[in-house]
Each structure stands twice: as C-alpha cells, then as structure tokens.
Amino acid sequence: MDFRQAIQNHRVIAALRKEEELASLEGTDPTVCFLLFGEINTAADVVKRVKSMGKQVYLHIDLAQGFGNDRAALRYIRSQVQPDGIVSTRTHLIRSAREEGLFAIQRLFIPDTMSVETGKHLLKQSRADAVEVMPGVVPKWVFETLRDSRDIPIVAGGLIRGEDDIRSAFKNGASAVSVSSRGLWNQKV
C-alpha cells in the first residue's frame, strides 16, 4: 500500500513526539505514523515496532538526533532504519531522499502570503512526494495554490486541537491531517 492509499484508508496521521507514546499507538486506526523524535541508535527498532503494528512510518529527520544533513545519512536511513519515508523542512534533503529511493514529505511553514509563494517554489525544486503544511488551519486558498503547483497529497499539521479543526482542514482541501493528540487518532471524518 502506498502513502496515498494509506491516507485514504484513514485520513488522520498519528504524530508521535516521544518513544513513550508508542504503546498508545497499538490498536489505533491510523495507517500512517510520523515519528517526530528519534536518534540514530534506536530509530531502526522504533520503526520496526511501528511497522509490526501494520502502520506506515515516516521519520522526521530534522528532529531525529545523530543523522547528518547529507546523502550518506539518507542512505543509512534507507538501508538500516528502513522507514516508509522521511519528513523534512530541508529542500536539498527531500530532493536527495527521492534520488535515494525514499518517499519524501516536505514540511512547509506558512505564516503569511509570501511563504505560500516560497512554498510553491520549494516544492518544484524538491519534487517532494507529499507536503505537510503547518499550521494545518490555513485558509482554503493556501491548499489550492500548493496543489496547483504540484498535484501531491497535502497533509495539514499543527494547531489541530479538535474534531472541528480536522473537519475544517478537510473542507479546505487537505488530503490528511497529522495530529499528536491521541484522542483524535481514531476520528472518522
């Protein structure tokens, strides 16, 4: 199952901020998990554990400790850690990850109109497989503009605190939402 199919099965992505949250992931509905923590010595075991739950796992390499900002780190992640893909704000890492055969999700911060234009440019440069827009509670035109730039899945992340925020993100055009609140992981919207 690829990323698009996985988020169609369940549109809420579990975003884990620390290893202790892994136990809470067991038996939940999300088919996709973003790891917003980690370190080089334990990442492979954590990824294996999440995969054993039947979930896809994407490692946020900017937040994981011990990995470099280069192609060698990406090769190590692909061969030794073996996530389904990576998440990063760094355009060069997204582009290199794709060249190394990793599914790559570019995280964009959108605080103003200028950053939407910058985001469009970064997505064209990186050729990301998907994009995570932060905060996830942006106006509809932001998702439309980014989708016009590249027809890729858009994940809304950040500042999503309740079911109303999830519904609003989907109404505005998000393909999926990533949330760290365990109470929202099983939402069916």
Q: Any overview of this molecule?
A:
With 189 residues, the protein is an alpha/beta fold. It has a single domain (3-184), classed as Aldolase class I (TIM Barrel, Alpha-Beta Barrel), CATH 3.20.20. Helices cover 39% and strands 20% of the residues. It is built from eight helices and eight strands; from the N terminus they run αβαβαβαβαβαβαβαβ. The protein has an eight-stranded parallel beta barrel, surrounded by six helices. α5 packs parallel to α6. The chain starts with a helix and ends in a 10-residue tail after the last strand.
Strand order of the largest sheet: 1-2-3-4-5-6-7-8
CATH superfamily: Aldolase class I
CATH architecture: Alpha-Beta Barrel
N-to-C terminal Cα separation, in Å? 21 Å
Please identify the structural class as seen in this structure: alpha/beta
What average pLDDT do the residues reach?
96
Give the number of DSSP strands: 8
Shape, principal axes of CA atoms: globular
Query: DSSP strand (E) fraction?
Result: 15-25%
Describe the main β-sheet briefly: 8 strands, parallel, barrel
Describe the secondary-structure layout.
Layout: H1 3-9, E1 12-16, H2 22-25, E2 32-35, H3 43-52, E3 56-60, H4 71-81, E4 85-88, H5 91-99, E5 103-109, H6 113-126, E6 130-134, H7 140-149, E7 154-157, H8 163-171, E8 176-179
Parallel strand pairs: 1-2, 1-8, 2-3, 3-4, 4-5, 5-6, 6-7, 7-8
Helix pairs in contact: 5-6, 6-7
List keywords for this structure.
TIM Barrel, 8 helices, alpha/beta, 20% strand, single chain, 189 residues, 39% helix, globular, eight-stranded parallel beta barrel
Write a concise synopsis of the structure shown.
One of its GO terms (biological process) is glycerol metabolic process. With 189 residues, the protein is of the alpha/beta class.
